[in-house]
Design brief:
The chain is mainly alpha-helical and 263 residues long. The chain has 13 helices and no strands.
Amino acid sequence: MIDFVRKNAYGIKDLVDIVAILRMPDGCPWDREQTHASLRRGLLEEAYEVIEAIEEENSAHLQEELGDVLLQVVFHAQIEREAGVFDFDAVCDIICKKLIFRHPHVFGETAVGDTAEVLANWEELKRQEKGQQTVSESMEAVARSLPALWRAEKVQGKAAKVGFDWYEPQGALDKLGEELNELSAAMNGGEAAHIEEELGDLLFTAVNLSRKLGIDPEEALSRATDKFQDRFALVETQASVPLKELDDAAWDKLWEQAKKESY
C-alpha cells in the first residue's frame, strides 16, 4: 500500500499527485494500462455527462461531472509527462497564454464595443495564432471528430463570415426542397453511392437552414428524438396486442393518438 496523506479537502496539485501514484508500478493495474486512445471514449462520455448536468440545472451533479472531466485532462497530461513531452503545468501554461492573446481588449489596448466585435477579433486572432492564411485552412482546422451536424454548422459559419451565405432563411429552405428532389431522383436511380451523396447534401442543407434560423441542429435533433421516444412509449402502452402484430392502419391510429396526447 502506498503512503498517502489524507485531507479534509484536496486541490489540483493533489489530483495531479494521485493520478501519478495510480500510474506507478505499484499503483493500479488498470490505470497503468491506459493510453490516450483507450481513454478517448471516456473523455467524450464525461463531456456529455457535464452537458446533461447543465441541462438538469443540478449544481451538485455538475460539480461531480466537472471533476470527472478534469480527471481526464490530468490523466492525459500524466501520460505525456511519463513520456517526457509535457505535464499538467504546461497544459495550464498554454491555455493561459492563449486566453491572454485572444483577449487584447482585457489584457491589452484593443477597444471593443460589444460581444460581436469580441467574437470577430477572437476568430482573427485564432487564425493568426494557428498561422491560417485562408478561410479553407480555418475550415480544415474544424475537428473531424466533432458530431457531424456540429462540424457542418461550424464549417458553414466560416463560409458565411466571408459572404458565402443566404441573406434570408427562405433561401436555405428553397435549397432544402431542391436537395429533397435530387435525393428522390437518386433513389429512383438505385445507385447506393449516389443516394448516400444526395442524402448527405440534404442533411448539410438542413443544418444550413437551422443556422439561418438561429437553431442549434444538435439540440433540435435531440429534442425531436426525445419527442419520438415519448410518443412511441405512448403507442406501446396503448397497443392491445404486441407491437409486431400491429398492421399499418393500427400503427397510424395509435401514432396519431399519441401525437394528440403529447401536445
